[in-house]
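Q: Make up one entry.
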Amino acid sequence: MNSAGVTDAEPTSTIDLPDESATAALAEDVAACLAPGDVVALSGDLGAGKTTLARALIRALADDPALEVPSPTFTLVQGYRTPHLAVAHFDLYRLTDGAEIDEIGLADARDEGAVLVEWPERAQGRLPAERLDVALAIAGSGRRATVSGTGDLAARFARSRVARAFLDDAGWGNAARRHLAGDASRRRYERVRSGGKQAVLMDWPRGGQLAEDDPRARFRARDIGAFLAVSAALRDAGLSAPKVYAAEIAAGFALIEDFGDERIAVEGQPRPDRYATVIDVLAAIHAVRRPRELTIPGGGTHLAPVFAGAVVEAELTSFADAYVPFATGRQLDDAGRGELFAIWAGLAEELARAEQSWMLFDMQAPNLFWLPERSGIARVGLIDFQDMFMGPAAYDVASLCQDARVTIPTELESSLRRRYVDLRSKANSTFDSNAFAAAYAVSAALRTMKNLGAFARFAGSGNRAYLQHFPRLREYLERLLGEPVLSPLALWYERRLTS
C-alpha cells in the first residue's frame, strides 16, 4: 500500500457488488481500460448480472446513461459505435457448436473494436487466451465478481482498479469515468464526475513518457511531480494552469481541474483574438526572469532541463530516421546525417545565445483552452507543460504562430509576431527584436522538423491520421528556409530532400 492508501491490484480479484452503483463502477473500470482487439468474457448463471454489467459498460463507453442496450440473446450480436471505440456485444447462449463462433463474426468485430461475450463457455475454447474473464455470482442481496486474465488487458484492468482506489481515497467514490483524448505519450486522461463535481484524472504510469530507446526520453519529465511543480509555478505567475485536487506521485495519479472543451481554435480554424491572448500570456511569462528550480507541492523540487545542444540533436533524430525515408523512399546516408547534425550544432548555439525563459514546449491548439468566464491572460487554460525547459523564449512563440495542428495564415502569423514584439518592447526598452527574429526562425524550423519526424513515425506505425498534417508542416518549413540564419539548412534541404 502506498502513502495515499492505494493498494496494488492482484492478477485475480474478487469484487463485491452490493448494489447497482457498484456494478456500474466496475463497468466503468473495465470500460476505462478497453482498446481495439480486447475481449471481455462475462460468465455466470442466469440472473447473475452479465447483461446488466454489459449494458452499464456499453453506456459508459457511449457516455449515454439512457442508451438502449437490448440483450443480444436472439440476434447473437449487437454492435455499437461509441466516441472512444466500437464495441460488439455477443451472447453465445444459443450456440450449439463452438465452430459457429467464426460464422457470427467475432474475429471481424475484434478487428474493429472491443468485444463483450456472454456465455463464453459455449465458444468451447475458441476465444483468445489473452482476455479479461469476469465471473458473476449472486451474493446475498447483491452480486460478486471474480476478475482474472492474462496479457496486456489484464494489466490495464489492474491499473484501472488502482485508479479507482485513488479516486475513492480522494473522495470521488463510484465516480463516472470517461475516456479523454490524450497525447502521444504513455499518459492517459479521463473525465470523471461525481455528485455534481467534474475533474480530469491524469494517469502517468511508471517508466517515463517515452520508450527507453527513444533519444528524447532522458530529457523528458519522468513522473507526475514535474507536472505538479510547473502547474503550481504557472498559477503563482497569475496564469491558468489546472488546480490539483489530489495527487499521488508514487502511484502516478493526479486529479486536476477540468477546463472543459472550448479551445483557441474552433472547428480547425484559428480564432485570431484567442491566439492574440496566448501571445499576451507568452509576453507576460518572458517579461520576468523565471527560476529553473521549482517547488513540488507537498515536498521536493523539480529542476527544469536546459534546452541545449544534446536536446536539439535528440529532437531531430526522428526527422533523420523517419521523415527523410518517408519523403524520399530511402534512408539518409551517413554523410547526409553528419551534415544535418553539424548544421544544427551551429544553430543550437544560436538558440543558446537567445533570450532564455520558461519554455512550455507544446504551445499549440490542443493544449490551449479558452476560459471565457475569466479575464485577461487568465482566459487561456494551459495543459501539457510537464516537459517545460529553460530555453529560448522564441520557441513557444514559434510553436503557437506555426501551429502544427491548425493552419496559421501568413498574415495572422505576422500579426501575432508583431504583437509579441510590441508588448516586449514596451515593457523593456532593451528588447532586441532582431535577435528575437533569428531565434524565432531557428526555433520554428526545429519544431517543424521534429514534428515531421514524429508524425512520419506515427503514420508508419499505422496511424494514418497524421498524414493530414504534412502539407501544413512542409509549407511552414519552406517558408522558413528563406531566412538568412537558416541558409546552411536550406542548402542541405534542397540537396537532400528536393533533388
Q: What stands out?
A: The two ends are 61 Å apart (CA to CA). The longest strand covers residues 132-139. Confidence is low (pLDDT under 50) at residues 1-10. The chain has 14 helices and 20 strands.
